[in-house]
Amino acid sequence: MITLGVLERSVMNALWESPDGLSAPELGERLVAAEAPAKRRELATTTLLTVLSRLESKGFVSRSRATRPHRYHAVNSRSEHTAELMHEVLQLAPDRDDALARFVGGVSPTEAETLRRLLASRGTGN
Amino acid sequence: MTGAWVGLAVLALALAWPVPIALSKAAWPARAPGTALALWQAVALSGGLSMIGALLAFGLTPFENDLGVASNLLSGHLLDGALPTQTGALQIVSLAGAVVLGVHLVLSLATTAANTARERRRHRALIELLSSPLQGSPDTRMLDFPAPVAYCLPGVRSITVLTEGLVRVLDAAQLRAVLAHERAHLRQYHHLVLLAFKAWNIALPWFPIANRAEKAVALLVEMLADDDARREVDDASLATAIAIVGSPWRDVDPAAAPIAADEIVPEADPETLGARVSRLISPPGSLTRAARALVLASGVALVAAPVAVLVALL
């Protein structure tokens, strides 16, 4: 069973690997080719278009209408998106928000030094 | 009546200034983080209610004979009835102030909640595109990023996100510690407490009651999550995990990084980390049951006082 989430992920992966963008039929070919031969089956273009328009409305995919069929591009690269997430998590974005609870808050060099000392003193067994 | 508004004003001032400063400097919260968290919530709630209550009580002084009749007020006594002769401009301003402050606090909470929800939705959508669920643990996701980071994303289906950098530097016990810590945050709904205090800080940024509180509460929820994690792993593993994750990341092999890890250096957040680690290395005795009961009773009393006055007024 292919869930929508898995399909969205595969579509994004294909687009991230195609700097020139892909049309929906090209995308379908790639996705089917990427499957193991035993699991290979046709992907309806309408399904792909639905997924693409969802991704477009979320702002992850852009569509260029200059050609027919339309070509789809990833708006940001994979690493740009990852960086965006990490900035948000580490609260470096200008509109910092505590939407997320992080394992460790930021650390200054002084704190790191304190920690090493604390850990060292534990190591010497007091 | 006069006693009521003076009393509430004194309480509001105390809770806006000296009390949060003293509480944020106190050492005992590390020995009973849950109790301290409850007290902070009582201070914030009571502070807000006292501010509004003091303004209301002062504004309503001319209606003394009429009290217990909020319905009168609401049905337009104030608007089209003749105002009592001793109603001054000051009372009107005070009543308006109470309404404005109340609306301001509620709106701040609502906008903060809406903004947070929107950011989380986008964050979750991206996480789902960028990572696959871990096998056997569908609510844990691994992100391809060189620096060691772990966090949780609350929601209908909460998820815990780990980076590959984290998994690379931590051993199994330390990783278990991190996961237990994150799951404790989710299980104990820490994001809701943090959200309330964040909204509070946005609404009243100049008051220690708000800015000290947000920071103190952030540390307390970390300690609570640490305490939860300690039930699953030994203190040393948890402390080491905190130390490793907290250490500056410049040691990360830059060649392995798709983006320069140097660009993302956590900002200094003094004391937090040291406080958490030293607490694990030399655990302070927890607060006695009697002391905790005393703190909780003061918290209840703090909230009860303005509530009683407001009930009498309206």
Automatic annotation (TrEMBL), chain A:
<protein>
    <submittedName>
        <fullName>Predicted transcriptional regulator</fullName>
    </submittedName>
</protein>
<dbReference type="GO" id="GO:0045892">
    <property type="term" value="P:negative regulation of DNA-templated transcription"/>
</dbReference>
<dbReference type="Pfam" id="PF03965">
    <property type="entry name" value="Penicillinase_R"/>
</dbReference>
<keyword id="KW-0805">Transcription regulation</keyword>
<dbReference type="GO" id="GO:0003677">
    <property type="term" value="F:DNA binding"/>
</dbReference>
<keyword id="KW-0804">Transcription</keyword>
<dbReference type="InterPro" id="IPR036388">
    <property type="entry name" value="WH-like_DNA-bd_sf"/>
</dbReference>
<comment type="similarity">
    <text>Belongs to the BlaI transcriptional regulatory family.</text>
</comment>
<dbReference type="InterPro" id="IPR036390">
    <property type="entry name" value="WH_DNA-bd_sf"/>
</dbReference>
<dbReference type="InterPro" id="IPR005650">
    <property type="entry name" value="BlaI_family"/>
</dbReference>
<keyword id="KW-0238">DNA-binding</keyword>
Automatic annotation (TrEMBL), chain B:
<dbReference type="InterPro" id="IPR001915">
    <property type="entry name" value="Peptidase_M48"/>
</dbReference>
<dbReference type="Pfam" id="PF01435">
    <property type="entry name" value="Peptidase_M48"/>
</dbReference>
<keyword id="KW-0472">Membrane</keyword>
<dbReference type="GO" id="GO:0046872">
    <property type="term" value="F:metal ion binding"/>
</dbReference>
<keyword id="KW-0645">Protease</keyword>
<dbReference type="GO" id="GO:0006508">
    <property type="term" value="P:proteolysis"/>
</dbReference>
<keyword id="KW-0479">Metal-binding</keyword>
<dbReference type="GO" id="GO:0004222">
    <property type="term" value="F:metalloendopeptidase activity"/>
</dbReference>
<keyword id="KW-0812">Transmembrane</keyword>
<keyword id="KW-0862">Zinc</keyword>
<feature type="domain" description="Peptidase M48">
    <location>
        <begin position="124"/>
        <end position="197"/>
    </location>
</feature>
<keyword id="KW-1133">Transmembrane helix</keyword>
<comment type="similarity">
    <text>Belongs to the peptidase M48 family.</text>
</comment>
<feature type="transmembrane region" description="Helical">
    <location>
        <begin position="36"/>
        <end position="60"/>
    </location>
</feature>
<protein>
    <submittedName>
        <fullName>Peptidase family M48</fullName>
    </submittedName>
</protein>
<feature type="transmembrane region" description="Helical">
    <location>
        <begin position="89"/>
        <end position="114"/>
    </location>
</feature>
<dbReference type="InterPro" id="IPR052173">
    <property type="entry name" value="Beta-lactam_resp_regulator"/>
</dbReference>
<feature type="transmembrane region" description="Helical">
    <location>
        <begin position="293"/>
        <end position="313"/>
    </location>
</feature>
<keyword id="KW-0378">Hydrolase</keyword>
<keyword id="KW-0482">Metalloprotease</keyword>
